[in-house]
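[scheduler] slot 2 assigned
[scheduler] job type: sequence-to-structure, two independent chains
[scheduler] chain ordering preserved from manifest
[runner] begin chain α
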Amino acid sequence: MKQITSAQNPFIKSLVLLQEKSKARKQSGAFLIEGQREIELATKGGYEIETILFLSDLISENQITKLAGRTVELIEISKDVYQKLAYRDTTEGILAVAKTKSLALSDLKLSEKPLILVAEAPEKPGNIGAMLRTADAANIDAVIIANPKGDLFNPNIVRSSVGCLFTNQIASGTTQEIIDFLKAKKINIYAATLQNSTSYHTQDYTKPTALVVGTEATGLSDEWRDNATQNIIIPMQGEIDSMNVSVAAAILIFEAKRQRGF
């Protein structure tokens, strides 16, 4: 079995770039996953694991085989190398190099009456991770990111989603591409916005539905408001006129789930 003990090893340096640089992830078509649960969910989600790096003091080869099978390349690494690559303070001693997946709208497999979350230009990995966790909890059809600010295989998104990046169908595209896609599929568009909107709980989400949320700072672009089946709003009774986007998304998603009988 291959062993790497130096953080200056060229392969380890390339993995550091995968952690830190979106460009490196895009060029290589690979990204890093940290943690046993996340690797297990990625495997179940159909992600191809290329290499596993592990600390033998913390995890055994037998445990790794159960996680990822026998065909994956295994590399035993030193504690120094692990600390160079790992983000977490509580370590499990395992990292994986996985291939990224296509995020094409055309690859989505939707049910007869799909429920989809669309988030336009979300900036904070923590918010994206939280929305992915909610989408998994509600078992919706897909999460679509419009006009993404970065790549979805950012380690902060992998981490904040606690592996739900791998349990959801995910796609991305421009706002116009997504609107065209939804209209072609005859999916109703409900845009969460302050302008020309009606209370969210008055609408029927039992039909094919896309719930669209924007950023807290600027909200949704005009294209969504102009092309929506209905603009909707969550009534606010305090001093401010907006809430965290992941919280708003959760409220809308679970209202739709309630109407569908969970």
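[runner] end chain α
[runner] begin chain β
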Amino acid sequence: MNNIKQDFTIKDLENISGIKAHTIRIWEKRYNLLEPQRTNTNIRYYSHKNLQKLLNVVLLTKNNFKISKIAKMSDEEIYQNSRDVAFKEGLNDEAINSFKLSMLQFDKILFNETYNRLLEVKTFKEIFKEIFIPFLNYIGLLWQTDTVLPAHEHFISNLISQKIHINTENLEQKNLSSEKTYVLFLPENEIHELGLLYLNFELVNKGYNTIYLGQNLPLNNLNIFFNHEMKLCFVTSLTVQPYDDKVEEYFKELETILSGTKHEFVAIGRKTELVKHNTYNFNVSFFNTVTDVLNDI
């Protein structure tokens, strides 16, 4: 298929690799490390092969290889040495680099090969916390600098969500606690659900019963649960929605719905800072991150 982003500027390489453009230029000039093409106006642009080589070079330099020594290696030697280092020292770094390439090239096979290799030495929880979370934070930075498109973010997010769903389904085969049921959902027009999906996995892993409602839920739908005798804890995550000037209104509506009930409510995300100091007539707790919630349970 024709990838949406086939060529990269030197600024893209800087954002993706973490190596300053000035340093990349020095490596080109002094060591002939990369061979960029040039536009008619003499602006450098780089291929996926250039990007992959640079990421492997960065991995080696982080593991005490001198750039002068790397420059004398063939492309195949750089590739093999980076893989050797990855398995011995820098598996996390190498995996994140592979996930970057998978995202930029829409390469599902590379994503799954990298993930399966990680599973040989790590649990799913370790992969998510040590690799997926830093990787997702990094994607956020790339998105802000226009290095990646929403299509890239959606592609990789869907692949990660599939892994969360699979691991959650495997856990749900065991007996779960009836002490409390967690009902997880996102506000209307909110689509960033990886954090909530992972929280659902962790809750199931701890033995709790969960009802996962997913994206874009109108608040009046919560009423359907009030006829049950279950002890409920509603959980939502606010990343983009509601907009900042609507957050207070959102919690006022929640207060109208939950006031007089014994159910709990947990709100996660930076937007909670806008309302967490208000007084509400229902049992609500505010947390900045999913990790904070898990530490409290």
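[runner] end chain β
[qc] chain β: The two ends are 46 Å apart (CA to CA).
[scheduler] slot 2 released
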